[in-house]
Design goal:
Length: 464
């Protein structure tokens, strides 16, 4: 998403937002679409064990239901963000919502794991389109004086589905089968699309040359690296190492190609700022740790501790719930304390919580799990808001669109790497796979805390 898009939108007839009635319905449509894409991420993890049994697939293979979604999203983010001016915000969001809704239907009726993973790839494409267009649309729908209110609602559309997703999935699985966690998207997505098309006017579009080579290298780089890490878990080490090596080569080629491109997808001006680049690194580490835990915990609860899906979902819920609470607190603290300090503190707490989960008693009581999950959530919430604030305010205001795009890339890249590592660690660890994932997640959280501390050192050095 570029600043040109926002400025062109601001100079259009929508520079003071939509009329009140249209604004309300347009906001409902946008926020519902964002909420559905985030809910889809939160609910699937709980259903993975049931999917594996229903489709006759291994645990490691079933994790690709998550991997495929994350991989497709992260591959699409940079190319879509670079083309948003040519596509237009309305077309971009409507296409994303339509793709997401239709692919949800395919997920629900998928007869095999291959079909389900393919449909999840399409869902990831839709989620990427929604993610790129969502923030810009909120700034267009609301008048300038109410943009803060719109952003607050957008934050709720992200946080609430994450908090309620595990419980919602557990409730669905308690009364019916896993396809219904996808079917719920179909009527709601259809309503959101109809409201969106009825209320949001078209946005200005400008000519922009599609970077075919950069898009190809971007897809190959992320795809080969993630698939290679996943292949390590299947035992074919030579193939896995070859895929990883080719992925790294593609990353180098992408970097060189982007350096010469007149309109690069990568915001090199921001990445040259040490504080910004360290914030991106911190974000990727934190989201890698998060997804390592989120994907592996249902297997720990249901396969190792012999709990039901309902119990599993309820026990995971304290994490996102306390994240939402701590994030609000961190939003107030970041005005008084350095973002890097708060981020380091939060990731340190997250690492401690994950280590404590590794050393659960053999037969833990519910409260022994719940307080550890709440601790992880507090740590993640204390990190999230300050780090995002740092990413969005380090560079000039005119580059807020590029900063937002890198924020999304860091998030999805972390999720994608974490999902691929789950496949690897499940293949290597067997029954100890979930515990191994939590330990590696703790290591990533600790690494993020170190990166954030380095950012604070840079800030102090620059100030001194």
């Amino acid at each position: 998403m570029s600043d040109t898009t926002l400025s062109s939108s601001s100079s259009s007839s929508m520079n003071d937002g939509l009329p009140a009635r249209e604004r309300r319905w347009a906001a409902v449509a946008v926020l519902l679409g964002i909420a559905l894409s985030n809910l889809s991420t939160a609910v699937v993890n709980i259903a993975l064990p049931d999917m594996a049994l229903s489709l006759g697939a291994s645990d490691a293979a079933t994790v690709w239901v998550v991997n495929g979604y994350q991989l497709a999203a992260v591959v699409c983010l940079l190319p879509v963000a670079a083309m948003v001016e040519a596509l237009g915000l309305k077309r971009l969001f409507a296409t994303g919502l339509a793709v997401f809704t239709l692919s949800s239907l395919v997920c629900a009726v998928a007869p095999t794991l291959g079909t389900l993973v393919s449909a999840r790839l399409l869902q990831g494409v839709g989620a990427a389109l929604l993610s790129v267009a969502g923030v810009a649309l909120v700034r267009v729908i609301y008048p300038q004086r109410l943009v803060g209110k719109g952003m607050a609602w957008l934050a709720m559309a992200v946080a609430v589905p994450a908090a309620l997703g595990p419980t919602f999935a557990a409730m669905v699985l308690a009364v019916t089968s896993w396809p219904w966690i996808f079917l719920i998207n179909v009527p709601l997505g259809g309503v959101a699309l109809w409201l969106f098309l009825s209320t949001v006017p078209g946005s200005e579009r400008t000519a922009h040359r599609f970077d075919g080579l950069g898009t190809l290298l971007n897809g190959l780089a992320f795809g080969l690296l993630v698939v290679g890490v996943g292949t390590l878990g299947s035992g074919d080490r030579r193939l896995a190492l070859a895929e990883i090596a080719l992925g790294l080569v593609c990353f180098v080629l992408l970097f060189r190609q982007q350096r010469r491109h007149p309109s690069p997808m990568l915001p090199f001006d921001l990445l040259r700022l040490p504080v910004f680049s360290l914030a991106v690194l911190t974000s990727s580490c934190s989201y890698t740790a998060q997804i390592l835990a989120y994907v592996s915990l249902p297997f720990l609860f249901e396969r190792v501790l012999n709990m039901t899906p309902v119990q599993s979902g309820l026990l995971i819920t304290p994490w996102p719930l306390t994240t939402a609470i701590a994030a609000q607190l961190a939003g107030r603290l970041v005005v008084r304390y350095p973002a890097a300090v708060l981020s380091s503190l939060g990731l340190g707490i997250l690492a401690a919580g994950l280590v404590l989960m590794v050393f659960l008693p053999a037969e833990p009581a519910y409260w022994q799990i719940a307080w550890r999950m709440a601790l992880c959530g507090v740590g993640f919430g204390l990190f999230q808001t300050p780090n995002n604030t740092a990413m969005m305010t380090t560079g000039p205001a005119t580059r807020s669109g590029a900063a937002s795009g890198m924020n999304a890339v860091a998030r999805f890249a972390g999720w994608t790497l974490g999902s691929a590592l789950v496949t690897l660690l499940f293949g290597l660890g067997g029954e100890q796979g979930p515990a191994l994932c939590l330990a590696v997640g703790a290591a990533f959280a600790a690494s993020g805390a170190v990166a954030s501390a380095a950012r604070r050192w840079r800030e102090v050095r620059a100030g001194g």
